[in-house]
Amino acid sequence: MKKHHNVWAIIVLLALLGWGIFDAEFLNRQEPIASSGEQGNGQIGIEKGNTAPDFELQQIGGGTVKLSDLRGKKVILNLWATWCPPCRAEMPDMQRYYEENKEKGVVILGVNLTDTETSPEAVADFAKLYGITFPILLDPDKEVANVYKAISIPTSYIIDSNGVVQNKYIGPMSEEIMENMLSAVK
Predict the structure, then answer these.
(1) Are 52 and 163 in contact (CB under 8 A)?
(2) Is 66 in the same domain as 154?
(3) 32 pLDDT more than 70
(4) Which residues are listed as membrane-spanning (predicted)?
(5) How far apart, in whole angstroms, are the C-alpha atoms of residue 123 and residue 60?
(6) What residues make up the domain containing 18?
(7) What is the pLDDT of residues 142-161, one digit of tens each?
(8) How far is the C-alpha of 144 from the C-alpha of 150, rounded, in Å?
(9) 17 and 101 in one domain?
(10) What gap in Å lies between CA 106 and CA 175, rounded to an integer?
């Protein structure tokens, strides 16, 4: 009887492993994203050298922000949620980095995965509590999170002044990490 349990356990583990490999490969595939105004390597996408896919989202406090309107500035695109401990941990560093570099043409866009939050007001309360002054955008349907493949958060993209993706970072960013990533970006 124990042999049957062991055999079934092995079969289940192999099936899960196979599914995990397939799922990881499937999730990492990129679909072409249509847009006008291609730059970089001529492709729109989220890989290094691609023009970052454009989007427009509501900002807490009112108004909208469109990524392509920020051409000419270096952008840190940070996908996050208030309930995520690493996201919470990086916010003070992001705020300090933003304050020190906003006059140098650096913008941080905090794209909140709003569908995972209790309410948009909770996001606004979080931003107020942490003293966040960089734009916090609401992504209620995870459209941007899906395009930018934010499977794990926080996920950040470094986008140069031409709108081209230069780097991707998964995990909480410190001021030092942001400085190192942006120092080589025009």
Answers:
(1) yes
(2) yes
(3) no
(4) none
(5) 8
(6) 1-30
(7) 999 999 999 999 999 999 99
(8) 9
(9) no
(10) 13
